[in-house]
Amino acid sequence: MALRLAGPTAWRAGALAALIVLGFGAIATIAVRDPQVPFLDGRGPGDWIVYPVVTSSGLRTPFPLVAVFERSFELTGAPRDAELSARGFRKLSVRVNGVEVLSTDDASSWKRFATVDLDGALRPGRNTIRAEVENGMGPPALALELRHGGGIVSSDAAWTTSMLGAAEKPARLASAPLEYDPDTPDPDDATVAGALRKSAPLLLGFALAAAGLAFAFERLERSRLTARMEAATLVGLSVLAWAALYLHNAPGLLEGIGFDAQEHLDYIALVRHGTLPLGDQGWQMYQPPLFYLVAGGLLAVTGLEVEDDGASLLLRTLTFALGLAQVLLLYIGVRIALPDTRRSWRAAWVFATFLPLHLYLFHYVSNEAMCAPLATLAGVLLLRILRRETVSVGSAAWLGAALGAAVLAKVTAILLVPLAVLALVWKSVLERHESRGTVVRTVSALCVAFVLVCGWHYGRVWAHFGSPLVGNWTPGLGIPWWQDPGYRTVEHFLRFGSVFTQPWFAGFHGVPDGLYSTLWGDGLVGGLVSARLSPWNLALMASGYVLALVPALLLAIGAVRAIARVVRSADPTMMYLIGVTFALVGALVYMILLVPTYAQAKAFYVQVVMLPLAVFVGLGADWVARRGRGVRLTCAVLLGVWAINAYAAVWTPGEGAPPFPEADLPGSVAACAEVQSDDPRVHVHCAMLHRAAGEPERAVASMREVVRIRPLDRSTHEALSRLYDEMGKRERAAYHRRIAESLAEP
Q1: Is 95 helix (H, G, I), strand (E, B) or coil?
Q2: Which end of the chain is less crowded, N or C, counting CB atoms within 10 A of the terminal residue's CB?
Q3: Which residues of 636-648 are buried (b: 16+ CB within 10 A; e: fewer)?
Q4: H or E element at residue 83
Q5: Sign of the C-alpha dihedral, residues 622, 628, 629, 632?
Q6: What's the confidence (pLDDT) of residue 677?
Q7: 183 CB-contact burial (10 Å; exposed 0-12 / middle 13-18 / buried 19+)
Q8: Residue 93 carries which DSSP code?
Q9: CA dihedral (298, 302, 307, 310) positive or negative
């Protein structure tokens, strides 16, 4: 894979590098400068700190949260010069020794440091800095530094903080990973090490089966089996494997499982009765309508309603069929992209058929199920065009229609359109040397077909909202919300590895962990709040994160080989595959910055570029196979173990979800003094015990712990208000009463 960077090769390598740098540089510039992007950059003095609210997987209500940060320090004498620089996410007021020295009420300027001289504000002895930060769409955060003659006082974990009357706690660094209890039914399922111990006997059996299959395929390769016969065999195995999984799993799955499952069903119900909603009519109503039109049409034809018993099975039949179509189209696409490497076809077939993202996601009722195969179909049609000598207007129109259908299923597929056009133009002009008129007719046919298929929907949205692209995060759509962490730091994008220790909800730890955990397993457990409710074999799925290092390595090797091909020969096929991959990565990074929720870092969005990923796995497997028979067989066995384990992990045991455990409540007031828990039920119970024992101060302290865990819970603030009233603290009671009343507003 060595490259000699000279002549055209050097120019292509430089151009590719420049495009990547410019693209991600533009995203970084937006992240640092745009106040609408909640990115806490580490430039300048002081670390960003926040109040340590207990992590939640639920949506948080927009509310003017005010956090107070304090730090005291000693000076031997009054310094001659002192300067304070600070930023607050999003409004800030700073007092030094009780005197306000800085205030920024303009939320649009929160990314810029405000600096003031503290001439005469500091004194010998004890000094106190108190900063109040207000944020209505996320957690208040502070970055501050005070320079004086004796040294520096910076915001860090040594500061104390409180919010909305909650218990005062040490501040947490905003860059630190969030911790979340996945609540697994078995402690071994919560960690990869425990899962490997628990699954060891099964994994050994999988290894023996994989070794047998690897040697069988090795012998098969020496036979006279034609490529067509091999393809028919692999396609038949895919159909059998997916059909068996469907027949076993679909009838017994809970109806509510799946990401935003009920909201997707609400959309289908509206379409079933002839209403095509817009984005301000419900949580998922901003989605393009193709999947919902098909699903609603099936229900109408069969006479079923969404809530009927047979509707769930019918909709899952649709998503399973779409999933199988995705697998088969990926296999076809890899054969077109890599026509002379049968080993690549087999590896890509294993990847497509047994990828955990495919195996679990197509169990769920979601528009992702329709977007994926349509995006892959568009890729297959484009690769066929690129392999031909000439491009007909008809083939370009079919490609445009497929792209339009994919975008009508999910807007993420829009990334494919400009790159498909560029690939056609590049091939036509540089290799076929076609006339300008021919190129114009071809591109025009593609664009007209694309607009005819999906333009009506986006035109309708544009006319209503003033923009063709809206989402449930769009301001003014009438669905205000935010979700942990509520901001991003550069550490969120660099941190990786927690998925190999605590895989469930790994997006709380970092973006790469979130993407890895949802590509190679159901790391978000179907959008549920607890892994306890997951229908999958959690021990096998957690073990699969280590086994997935094998296909992940093949994918990485193949991506490098694809880039090398682009640099060497400007192959239009590889240029398209690499281009859409980088475009998707850039768009995903931007959306993770713009909508900074733990669940945004999930691999569902790579569905539109699954064809490039399958090709990369094929290229990587071909490179490994050339290292020798021993290396080839070892890789085949390891890949087989991963595939068998991935399939077994989603073969539901059918035992039903175990119940949530009861809270371990303290039995006495004395026991409450030792309580350290993030279960709000425990602290509410202690507050009741303290109140009954005539200890109102301790009852308030327990309820303040509940505020730390659930800062936007109306009933908690109402309870605190009553307690303060009983104590005669009218001002504090009124404060919590106002919060409760505000939270009760629609």
Answers
A1: strand
A2: C
A3: bbbbbbbbbbbbb
A4: strand 82-89
A5: negative
A6: 85
A7: middle
A8: E
A9: negative
Residue 595 is inside which H or E element, if any? none
Q: What are phi and psi of 214, to 5 degrees?
A: -65, -45
Residues 6+ apart with CB under 8 A from 396: 385, 424, 442, 443, 445, 446, 449
Sheet holding 169-170, edge to edge: 99-104, 91-96, 125-135, 65-75, 160-163, 169-170
C-alpha–C-alpha distance, residues 122 and 527, integer Å: 52
Distance CA 680, CA 683 (A): 5
Q: What is the DSSP letter of 287?
A: S
User: Alpha helices of 595-729 — where are they, by DSSP H?
Assistant: 610-625, 629-649, 669-672, 680-692, 696-709, 714-727
Burial of 701 (0-12, 13-18, 19+ CB in 10 A): middle
Q: Is the pLDDT of residue 130 over 60?
A: yes
Give the CA distances from residue 577 to residues 2, 562, 623, in Å, rounded to whole numbers and listed in that order: 21, 8, 18
Report the SS3 class of residue 94.
Answer: strand
Helix (H) or strand (E) holding 289: none
Give the chain's count of helices (H) and strands (E).
24, 12
Strand (E) or helix (H) holding 73? strand 65-75
Give 98-165 as a 3 state SS string: CEEEEEECCHHHCCCCEEEECCCCCCCEEEEEEEEEEECCCCCEEEEEEEECCEEEECCCCCEEEECC
Q: State the burial class of residue 552 (Cβ atoms within 10 Å of its Cβ: 0-12, 13-18, 19+).
A: middle
CA distances from 463 to 456, 468, 506 (A): 11, 8, 40
CB 191 within 8 A of CB 500: no
Q: How many Cβ atoms are within 10 Å of 435's Cβ, its own excluded?
A: 11
Q: Is 173 helix (H, G, I), strand (E, B) or coil?
A: strand
Please tell me the predicted confidence (pLDDT) of residue 260. 87
Given a contact cutoff of 8 angstroms between Cβ atoms, the answer to whether 491 and 510 are in contact is: yes
> Residue 618's pLDDT is what?
96
Q: Is the peptide bond before 228 cis (omega within 30 degrees of 0)?
A: no
For residue 28, the one-letter residue type is A
Phi, psi angles (nearest 5°) of residue 141: -135, 150
In the chain, the amino acid numbered 536 is W
Alpha-carbon dihedral sign for residues 525, 530, 534, 539: positive
Confidence label for 532 from pLDDT (cuts 50, 70 and 90): confident
Element (H, E) at 85: strand 82-89
Per-residue pLDDT tens for 131-158?
999 999 999 999 999 998 878 999 999 9
Map residue 86 onto helix, strand or coil. Answer: strand
pLDDT in tens, 715-743: 999 999 999 999 999 999 999 999 988 88
Residue of 483, 485, 512, 484 whose CA lies nearest to 499: 512
Would the CA dihedral through 726, 730, 731, 733 be positive or negative? positive
Cα maximum dimension of the chain: 91
The per-residue pLDDT for 629 is: 87
Residues 139, 67: contact at Cβ < 8 Å?
yes
Q: What does DSSP say about strands 141-148 and 151-154: parallel, antiparallel, or unpaired?
A: antiparallel
Q: Is the dihedral of CA 16, 17, 22, 24 positive or negative?
A: positive
Average pLDDT, the chain: 90
Mean pLDDT of 316-340: 94
Side-chain half-sphere of 445: how many Cα atoms within 13 Å?
16
Cα(300)–Cα(318) distance, integer angstroms: 14
